[in-house]
Amino acid sequence: MNTMTTLMNPESAPRPQDRIILALDVDTLNSALEWVERTRGLVGAYKVGLQLFSRVGPRAVAEIRMKGVEVMLDLKLHDIPNTVAQAVRAVSVLGPKFLTVHAAGGGEMIRAALREAGEMRVVAVTVLTSLNATEADVLVFARVAYESGVRAFVASAWEAGPLRRTFPGSIIITPGVRPAGALAHDQARVASPRDAIAAGADYVVVGRPVIESENPVETLQTIATQIAAPN
Ligand code: C5P
């Protein structure tokens, strides 16, 4: 293996569009499925989070998967190991590509999640950006997850670089991404797609800038263009 091969993440998606994860933060299954139809081929995966999952249930994931697209299931699981293991087992049959858990749940919980994950990739959330943690805090939680076998993290653009350097071979998924000129909404620390990718993100998660856009297709194309030329 040459140096380039070892540095390059094997799962780095080949097309810029495939590195975009669209957050389906909507209330109905119909709306979610419409977004999939509208944006098919323009994104690599769709994020089902607590909003849609709480409204629609597991069916949301199953129906989106039936459209032949990938899903990131963002449930941020955090409970005793056995409870998390049962939840992971339950959702694994739905076929999401990624499933999030809180690193704060500890090594035993994370290992329990990994044991039941099947084909899913378990992604660790380190510290919520809303908590104003330091980079050191993030690395402490990430280390627990990494040493338990996790090789994928949700991280802001600010933490993507340090995580990538400290935990080689990990996939980094970065939310809080805004194309230049877009509203920050409630995201405290936003980055452009270009900056997030340059910082080391493999995937960017974007929601409202697309969902609330007057021209979502154009917004997604702009994001893909910015990913294609990260420097
Ligand atoms: O609409 P917006 O682009 O801000 O959506 C970002 C998505 O990423 C939301 O679904 C949110 O829950 C999620 N997320 C985040 N910040 C984190 C972790 C997840 O915004 N630190």
Would you kindly provide a brief summary of this structure?
The chain is an alpha/beta fold.
Give me some keywords for this one:
single chain, 231 residues, alpha/beta, TIM Barrel, 8-stranded parallel β-barrel, 11 helices, 8 strands, 16% strand, disordered N terminus, binds cytidine-5'-monophosphate
Show unreliable segments. Answer: 1-8
Separation of the first and last Cα atoms:
26 Å
| CATH fold name | TIM Barrel
Q: What portion of residues is helical?
A: 40-55%
Number of helices: 11
CATH superfamily, called what? Aldolase class I
Mean pLDDT: 91
Major beta-sheet overview: 8 strands, parallel, barrel
What is the chain-wise order of helices and strands? HEHEHHEHEHEHEHEHEHH
Report on this model:
This protein is of the alpha/beta class and 231 residues long. The protein has one domain: TIM Barrel. The chain contains eleven helices and eight strands. Strands 1-2-3-4-5-6-7-8 form an eight-stranded parallel barrel, surrounded by eight helices. Helix 5 packs parallel to helix 6, helix 7 packs across helix 8 and helix 8 (157-166) packs parallel to helix 9. The chain is globular. Bound molecules: cytidine-5'-monophosphate. Cytidine-5'-monophosphate (C5P) is lined by residues 23, 25, 47, 49, 128-129, 154, 175-176, 185, 187, 205-209. The site of cytidine-5'-monophosphate has 16 residues, from strand 8 and helix 10.
Please give the structural blueprint.
Layout (H helix, E strand, L loop, with lengths): L2 H5 L12 E4 L5 H11 L5 E4 L1 H7 L2 H7 L4 E8 L3 H12 L5 E5 L4 H10 L4 E5 L9 H13 L4 E3 L2 H10 L4 E4 L18 H7 L3 E4 L1 H4 L4 H13 L3
Helix pairs in contact: 2-4, 5-6, 7-8, 8-9
The protein binds cytidine-5'-monophosphate.
The site of cytidine-5'-monophosphate (C5P) has 16 residues, from strand 8 and helix 10.
